[in-house]
Write a structure and sequence with these properties.
It is built from eleven helices and seven strands. It is α/β, with parallel strands linked by helices. It folds into two domains: 78 residues, no CATH class; 168 residues, Nucleotidyltransferase, domain 5 (2-Layer Sandwich). The model has no long low-confidence stretch (mean pLDDT 89).
Length: 318
């Protein structure tokens, strides 16, 4: 579709399609980035400094690369061992066995700060939501026919509006409520955004997060609430004047006026993140243990962050 064409009624598509297509093509190059080869010796030296016992043979960036291949292409750990054997034909690196790959990938702790774009002094609006991830790929027919119910995993994320990256995430089982995760996620998001030179100015979230505790957390952090107020919300303060002010404002403006003032529609940035991760890396996990399932889901979102960061970097270089 050419830039300027109209679709969906009043919407005018102003996207620069040639440049956008090129960024998506370059993203494919990033799937097999071999940058870890350049720092192999230095990474091992840092990891083995002061280590007691057997020394590391494979640096963390290499294991992270294998973890990304695992979740992106759905290759099992034995298949990854064969993948690394093929890799030795291209680069002089040792090939780990599948048990080592499994143990190291499951033990990965990727720092979310290393996957983010820099935001020097920028004010950022973030959005918060959760979504379910299947624990098996059995299919709907088996679930209905044999009444097999294994539950699901919930992933709670905070996405910043400008770069569309995930700045905080938590993975839980389906027994954890969304309201419980709001305070810790917002504290982490505020800390992470500050560490890359930005500042959280507003958070958008749906009505399930309309609680006094959540408003009090935002008051302490100095973040403007963009939380949708429930229809039957009380305007009584009860120890939280910030929520009272927003309830009165919501009642005065109505939903449409409040939505436009706080740009609530941009909350769908977080839905876009969920959609992209599930489309690129699938809607279910391959791991069987709960702890490993949680780690696999987190790795998917961190990998998507890395894709966005490198894509923007390539786009800036032209």
């Amino acid at each position: 579709m050419k830039p300027g064409n109209k679709r969906w009624g009043h919407y005018e598509d102003k996207r620069d399609w040639p440049n956008y297509n090129e960024t998506l093509v370059k993203r494919g190059e990033l799937y097999l980035s071999l940058d870890f080869l350049e720092t192999w010796s230095l990474d091992l030296q840092c990891m083995n400094q002061g280590k007691v016992g057997a020394k590391y043979i494979y640096p963390d960036p290499y294991i992270t690369f294998l973890g990304y291949i695992h979740i992106l292409l759905g290759i099992d750990y034995r298949g990854l061992e064969g993948f690394t054997r093929g890799l030795t034909r291209l680069a002089a690196v040792p090939s780990p066995d599948y048990t080592t790959i499994c143990r190291r990938v499951n033990g990965l702790r990727v720092d979310i700060k290393t996957t983010l774009l820099a935001h020097s002094g920028e004010d950022l609006v973030v959005s918060l939501d959760s979504s379910g991830v299947k624990v098996t790929n059995r299919g709907e027919w088996i679930r209905e026919k044999w009444k097999v119910r294994r539950g699901w995993i919930k992933v709670h994320i905070v996405v910043e509006e400008k770069g569309k990256q995930c700045v905080a995430l938590a993975v839980t089982d389906d027994s954890v409520g969304d309201q419980e995760m709001f305070p810790p996620l917002m504290r982490v998001a505020d800390e992470v955004i500050r560490s890359v030179g930005g500042k959280v100015t507003q958070v958008n979230a749906d009505g399930i997060h309309d609680t006094r505790e959540n408003f009090m957390v935002l008051g302490v952090l100095g973040v403007t609430p963009g939380i949708k107020i429930r229809k039957n919300a009380s305007a009584l303060s009860r120890g939280c004047p910030l929520r009272r002010r927003h309830v009165l404002e919501y009642q005065e403006l109505g939903y449409a006026g409040w939505r436009d003032r706080y740009r609530y529609g941009y909350r769908w940035r977080v839905e876009g993140c969920f959609s992209a991760v599930k489309r690129i890396m699938g809607e279910c996990v391959m791991a069987t243990g709960k702890e490993y399932m949680f780690g696999e889901v987190a790795l998917k979102f961190l990998f998507y962050n890395t894709l966005l960061r490198l894509r923007n970097w390539c786009f800036a270089l032209g």
